[in-house]
TrEMBL record:
SUPFAM superfamilies: alpha/beta-Hydrolases. InterPro entries: AB_hydrolase_fold, PET_hydrolase/cutinase-like. Residues 1-22 form the signal peptide. The keyword Disulfide bond does not apply. It comes from the Bacteria. This is Acetylxylan esterase. Keywords: Signal. Pfam families: PETase (PF12740). Residues 28-236 form the PET hydrolase/cutinase-like domain.
Length: 266
């Protein structure tokens, strides 16, 4: 008994308590920022933190699907803004060239340099992400060829743009039950073509071509985490996609996850 008591005493004295592990972030839940939406210029709607504070905010440019407008995706765009991004959505039903999306980023960069602007000194001009749905996903690939764009996330993308021209990491989203942009025919081959950059393919179980509308459905959390990592350097988001404990890879909500050799090195 005395020996057991001594062991317990020594353990209490010399074992250093380990810090509690932070709970994983649920990126699908709203972020910490209150959000406002307003016209950026005559051709773009912006979704942004209501209080831009004293720091800078990365930019996301958005392209709509054919026939759609930013209001169709307002829940998703507001969600991204709630994580500190300034989201410039092109007010066009045809964003496949990517030019309309890039114009939004360039307008924000100009506003960042204009005294008196609400965006003066508040835009992180070195971190711009491009994303969009369907035709807008193809437009995101087209925009991603521009040196202005840091990373690209095509959601169930159309055929626009050249994957070989991308110069930054890319996350391709497919929908398991998408019969408009069939994953195996139209999305996965584009993932396999992205050998020169870190590339991930994630196929959402049960998703149709219209799942991204509204608040983004099951795509919302992974999209947010990707941009938080690549645009904001958020280390909490890295494990969603990268490393041996890749959360997406083990999540049954995703019917297929692929990572190329460069992504495995991240």
């Amino acid at each position: 008994m005395r020996r057991l008591w001594l062991v317990a005493l020594l353990t209490a004295l010399f074992v250093v308590p380990q810090p509690a592990q932070a709970a994983p972030v649920d990126w699908a839940e709203p972020g910490p920022y209150a959000v406002v939406s307003e016209a950026l210029d005559a051709t773009h709607t912006v979704f942004r933190p209501a209080d831009l504070g004293t720091g800078t905010h990365p930019v996301i440019v958005w392209g709509n699907g054919t026939g759609a407008v930013p209001a169709v995706y307002a829940g998703l765009l507001r969600h991204l803004a709630s994580y500190g991004f300034v989201v410039a959505a092109a007010d066009t039903t045809n964003s496949g060239t990517g030019r309309e999306m890039l114009d939004g980023a360039r307008t924000l960069i100009a506003e960042n340099a204009r005294p008196g602007s609400a965006y003066f000194g508040r835009i992180d001009t070195a971190h711009v992400g491009a994303t969009g749905h369907s035709q807008g996903g193809g437009g995101a690939i087209a925009a991603g060829a521009d040196p202005l764009v840091t990373t690209t996330v095509p959601i169930e993308p159309g055929p626009q743009g050249s994957v070989g021209a991308l110069h930054g990491p890319v996350l391709f989203f497919g929908g398991q039950f998408d019969v408009v942009v069939l994953p195996g025919l139209l999305v996965i081959p584009r993932y396999y073509a992205a050998l020169h950059v870190p590339a991930v393919y994630a196929e959402l179980a049960g998703a149709t071509h219209f799942t991204p509308a509204g608040d983004g459905g099951g795509f919302r959390g992974a999209l947010t985490a990707w941009f938080r990592y690549w645009l904001a350097g958020d280390s909490q988001a890295r494990g969603v996609f990268f490393g041996p404990a890749c959360m997406l890879c083990a999540d049954p909500a995703w019917s297929k996850v692929l990572r190329n050799a460069k992504a495995l090195e991240v």
